[in-house]
UniProtKB/TrEMBL annotation:
This is General stress protein 69. Signal peptide: none annotated. Keywords: Oxidoreductase. The keyword Phosphoprotein does not apply. PANTHER family: D-THREO-ALDOSE 1-DEHYDROGENASE, NADP-DEPENDENT OXIDOREDUCTASE DOMAIN-CONTAINING PROTEIN. InterPro entries: AKR2_Oxidoreductase, NAD(P)_OxRdtase_dom_sf, NADP_OxRdtase_dom. Residues 15-308 form the NADP-dependent oxidoreductase domain.
Amino acid sequence: MHTRSLGIDGPLVSEIGFGAWAIGGGWGEHDDRASIEAVHKAIDNGVNFIDTAAGYGDGHSERLIAQVMKERSEDIVVATKTPPADGPWPPSPYCRWQDRYSAAYLRDNIHTRLTNLGTDRLDLLQLHTWTRAWNDDPQPLLVLRQMREEGKIGLIGVSTPEQDQSCVIQLMRDGLVDVVQIIFNLFDQEPAAQILPVAAETGTGVIVRVALDEGALAGKYPADHVFPENDFRHRYFAGDRMARTVQRVEQIQSDMKIFGIQEQYTPADVALKFVLARPEVSTVIAGMRNVQQVEQNTRTSRLKDLPEDLLLQLRRHHWHRGIWYGGKD
């Protein structure tokens, strides 16, 4: 497993990280025993970065991770996230930070994060969403800075809102965040325009999420696939979204055949390698909830990098589809 620096002064982390949303619930039926087994297997395979959040099963994901950490001796970097207080998600331009991320709220929520993870210091605390409306008065991040001085937090980060990922650029340039978590994949390549170059310029760590577009880029779903109603993806791929997505995944698979790599690389490998081709990326958090998924995702780090001419060809799959959540039902 190759490692990369999580920001200019951050720790070395595995370039494939463990995305722990699914083990908290919300992705259909799940088994805690299989989840715990998956986390152990990921660590066995060299993964030393785990990303979770308060909202992943109302802390269930955090508590499962804490259970595993008690049984491991390795140094594992665990990142979690605090959501804003009740209100629209993502925050609207009219939301006040005082109502969504007040100092009292942040301290109380972070205390719960510490308790769930069974630690007295969080390696990385990310605000789970943000709005550009707060950029000129980013008091919530100053509260986190104070908590870092108190020894409660290590690194400070923000997870981008899907509809305005570039809102973190000012935060990076102002030195307010150590890490940003962004969506970057074969379909959504917009971060290459400015977010990634600014991360390099400022020494900001970059965590990439949704690198497999919620599993679609793994190429394992037919056009008529429908997820169960208790699976987050039932809404994500509502209407004709799955059919449209599969059509584009097939075009990526055609590129793989043209370059003759379909025997060595799976579509998931190509999707992950495309993201990892950017040196600004610190780690890619792939969702894993069983040993099979762990084996598939961690093997990618052992494969050779994709050839430059294929990377250039893959840029054509950038898709201006807007935000699924706001699309047709």
